[in-house]
Amino acid sequence: MRAVQHFTATAVVGLCAVLGAALPASAQIKIGAVLSVTGPASFLGDPEKKTLEIYVDEINAKGGVNGQKLQLIVYDDAGNPNNARTFATRLVEEDKIDAMVGGSTTGATLAMIPVFEDAKIPFISLAGAIQIIEPVRKWVFKTPHTDKMACEKIFADLKQRNLTTIAMISGMDAFGKSMRDQCVAVAPKAGIKIATEESYGPRDSDMTPQLTKIRNTAGVQAVVNPGFGQGPAIVTRNYSQLGIKLPFYQSHGVCSKEFIKLAGPAAEGVRLPCAALLIADKLPASDPQKPVVVNYTHTYQQKTGQAVSTFGGHAYDGLMILVQAMQRAKSADKAKVRDEIEKTKGYIGTGGIVNMSPTDHLGLNLSAFHMLEIKGGDWTLVPGT
Amino acid sequence: MNLRALIETRLLPAILVAAIVIILPMFFPSGYYYRIGALVFIFALAVVGLNLLMGFAGQVSLGHAGFLGIGAYSVAIGPTHFGAPSWLCLFAGAILSGAVAFAVGRPILKLKGHYLAIATLGFGLLIAIVLNNEAAWTGGPDGMNVPALTLFGWRVHGSDAWYWIAGATFVGGFLLALNLMESPTGRALQAIHDSEIAARVLGIDVARKKLTVFIISAMYASVAGSFLALFNGLVTPDVAGFLGSIELVAMVVLGGMGSIFGSLVGAAVLVVLPQVLTIFQEYEQALLGLIVMIFMIFLRQGIVPSVTAALAGWRKC
Q1: Distance CA B230, CA B308 (A)
Q2: How far, in Å, are A34, A280, A285, B10, B87 from residue A45 at the CA level?
Q3: What is the pLDDT, as a whole number, of residue A383?
Q4: Which of A202, A295, A94 is nearest to B28 (CA)?
Q5: Domain boundary assignment for chain A
Q6: What's chain A's Rg over C-alpha atoms?
Q7: CATH for the stretch A27-145+294-365
Q8: Cβ separation of B238 and A22 shorter than 8 Å?
Q9: Fewest CB within a 10 Å sphere: which of A33, A84, A115, B225?
Q10: pLDDT tens for residues A345-370?
C-alpha cells in the first residue's frame, strides 16, 4: 500500500514534467484553434474540429500553402472562457502559432481577443455575437452571420406576408438572449411591433404556460422563437399541442436535422432563416454557392458519417479565408495575412459570399440567409427569398 | 506559545510556500507558465477558505463558486457602472460576500447535519441565475469586460504581474489560515469537527464558530473571484456555475481536508492536469476522471495528509 502511495505521488510529479515536453513536432505554418469540443457547446466545437482536421489534411495532401505544410493545433475549452483564455496564451507563447481559427462561443472569443490583439496574430472567430466585430478590432474577424441579420431576415419575410404584430418567446441561454436583444433593437426599423414577450430557461421541459399567454394575447399575427438546443423543439411541440395556427418562426440556432427529429411532426410549417449549407441539394443550379456547399456536404459526410451543420461550415469558411489570404500574401507573415484577410472579396463559402473591408470584418449581407420552411420532415426553400 | 513553536507551526510552512512562489518562475520558459501559476494560486486561495470550512468546521459548501461570482462581478460592475476603483470594489465584494454568507449561514448553522450543503447549493444556483438574467447589469450569458486593476498609478497587466500578485496574496491567505487554526477559534473548530457534542459540553458556541468560519471562507472565495476576473479582463456567469463549486470541493478533497498546504496541492493538480492531458485529445476528460478516482482510492485522506503519513511511516522503519 505504501509503495502504491509513493508511486502515485511520483506519478503527479512525472505528469507535471510531461507538460514541458508536450510540444508537438515543428511544422511550417501553425494554425491554432480553441474549440468547445466537449461540454454544453460541443454541438458547435465537435463539427468545427472535425472540419478543420479534414481540410487541413486535404490541403497538406495537395502540397500545403505556398509550399509549406499546415499544422493544426486544437485545444478543447469545454465551453469555459477561462480555459479558452489559458489555451489562447498557450497557443501564442508555447506553440507560437501563425494564425488562429475559432473560439466556438462568444464568451470564449471575447476572453481570447486581448491575447491575440496583444500578440498581433490574425484571429478568425467562429462565434455568433455581433460584439466580436463591432467595434472593429484590427486582428479579429469572424465567419458566422450575426443574430441581427437573422432577425432582419425573419422580419423581411413577415412583411412580405403582411404580418406586422408578433409575439416573441425567447430562450434564456446566451444565444437566445443575444438574438432577442438584436430582434427587439431592429424591430421598429423593420416596421414590426412586438405585442408580447415570454421567456424560458434553457433546461425547461414545458413551455405551455408561456404559449397559452401568447395565444390569449389579442392582435398577435405570428410568433418568433429565438433560442437553440432542445428548448425550441419543446416550444414547437407545445405550440402544436396547443393548436396555435399562427405562422411560427424559429431561428438559425436550430438549423440542424436534429431539430426536425426532436420536434417531430409539430415542426411542419415552421419557418426559419438558414445558411445555404443545409439545403445544398435544393439550391438551384444557378446559385453560386451550390458547388461549394455540395462539395463540403459530400466531404464531411463521407469522412465523418454525420450530417453537416452550419457550425462546421463556419470553420470551413474560416480556414479557407485564412488559407486564401496566405496565398495572396505569398507568406504566413502575420501582418500581411491580416491585411489580406481584410481584403477578402467575393469569397464564396458555406455561409454566404464574403466581402470584407476595414470597417466590416464579417463581410456578409442578408443574402447569406435563405428562408426555409419545414415540409414533410425536410427543409424546403421559400420561393423569392 | 514560545517563539520556536511559533516558527515551526506557522512561519516555517509560510516561508516554504513563499519560497515555492519565488523559485517556480526560474523554471518558467514562457508567459503561459506564469498564467498557469497565477491560476493555481488564485484557485488555491479559494480552496484554502473552503478547506477551513470543510476540513475544520466539518461543513460542506456546494455553492462556493457563488462567492467567486460575487467577487468577480464586484470588480466588473463597480468600475463599469459606478466608476469606483477596482481595488475598492475587491474589498466591497469581499464584504458583500461575507454579509451574504452571514445571511445564509446564520439560520442554517444552528441546525445539525449537512443542511448548509443544501442551502449553499441553492444559493450558488441562485447567483448563477441572477448573473445570467440581469443582463443590463451583468451583460448576461456572454459576460462583461472587466477594467484592468490600477494600483498606485500602475496598470496591472500581463500574466507575470498577476503571478506575483496572486502568489503574494496566497502566501498572506495561507499565513492567515494557519494563524486562525492556532487561535482559540481554530482549536474550537477542530474540537467541533472531532465531536460536536463534546465541544458543546466544553462551552463552545458551536453555531457561532461555524458561522465565523463560513463567513471567512466566503471572503477568501470572493477575493479569488475578483482576482480571476481582473486577470482575465472578462467575466462570464460560468465563474459562478455549479461545476465551479464542485471543482473547488474536489480540490479540497484531493489535496486533503484539513490540510492548508493540501489546498495548494489540490488546486495545482486540478489546474495543471487538464493542461497536461491535452496530448490525449478525445480521452482527456475520461483520463482526468480516472486519475482523480485513482487518487481518491489510494490516497483516501487526500494527497498531502496521505503522503505525510506515508513519509512518517518510513521514517519509523
Answers
A1: 36
A2: 9, 22, 31, 48, 37
A3: 79
A4: A94
A5: 27-145+294-365, 147-281+369-381
A6: 22
A7: 3.40.50.2300
A8: no
A9: A115
A10: 999 999 889 999 999 999 998 888 88
Pick the CATH number of A147-281+369-381 from 1.10.10.10, 3.40.50.2300, 3.40.50.10610, 1.10.1760.20: 3.40.50.2300
| Interatomic CA distance for residues A52 and A272, integer angstroms | 27
Helix or strand holding residue A33 (H, E): strand A29-35
Nearest-CB residue to A81 (from B30, B140, B234): B234
Residue B313 banded pLDDT, cuts 50, 70, 90: confident
Nearest CB among A79, A94, A107 relative to B143 is that of A107
Residues of B with Cβ-Cβ distance to A37 under 8 angstroms: 282
**What pLDDT band is residue B280 in, cutting at 50, 70 and 90?**
confident
Q: How far apart are CA A225 and CA A158, in angstroms?
A: 14
User: What is the chain B residue with the closest CA to A34?
Assistant: B278
Across B81-97, average pLDDT: 93
Helical H segments across B110-158, by residue range = 115-133, 135-138
Distance CA A53, CA A51 (A): 5
Residue B64 has pLDDT above 90, yes or no: yes
Compute the distance between CA of residue B306 and CA of residue B304 in angstroms, rounded to an integer.
6
* Interchain contact, A9 vs B295, CB within 8 Å: no
Reported as a single tens digit per residue, the pLDDT across B95-151 is 999 999 999 988 888 877 778 888 889 999 999 989 988 888 888 788 888 888 888
Query: What ipTM is given for this predicted complex?
Result: 0.85
Q: What angle do CA A223, A228, A230 make, to 5 degrees?
A: 95
C-alpha cell at A284: 438551384
Rg of chain B taking only CA atoms, in angstroms: 19
Assigned domain for B8 exists = no
Residue B10 lies in a domain: no
Q: Could you count the other beta carbons within 10 Å of the beta carbon of residue B146?
A: 25
Helix (H, G, I), strand (E, B), or coil: what is residue A170? Answer: strand
B196 part of contact set with chain A, CB < 8 Å:
no
Kindly state whether residue B16 falls inside one of the protein's structural domains: no
For position B188, which CATH number holds?
1.10.3470
Annotate B224-291 with DSSP letters as a single string. HHHHHHHHHSEE-GGGGSHHHHHHHHHHHHHH-TT-HHHHHHHHHHHHHHHHHGGGGGGGHHHHHHHH
* Tally of CA atoms within 13 A in the half-sphere of B271 that contains its CB: 25
Q: How many CB pairs under 8 A join A and B?
A: 106
Summarised one tens digit per residue, pLDDT across range B96-105 is: 999 999 999 8
Cell of B51: 478547506
Q: Judge whether B22 lies within some domain.
A: no
Is the CB of A110 less than 8 angstroms away from the CB of B142?
Answer: yes
Question: B133 and A172 in contact by Cβ < 8 A?
Answer: yes
The two domains A27-145+294-365 and A147-281+369-381 share their CATH topology (first three levels equal): yes
Asked whether residue A21 carries a pLDDT value surpassing 80, the answer given is no
Beta-bridge mates of residue A200: A171
CB-nearest partner of B142 from A20, A76, A178: A178
The pLDDT of residue A8 is 44
Cα–Cα dist A300/A295, whole Å: 9
Rounded to whole angstroms, the Cα distance separating B157 from B168 reads 16
DSSP A24: P
- Furthest-apart CA pair in chain A: how many Å? 79
Helices (H) and strands (E) in chain B, counts: 15, 4
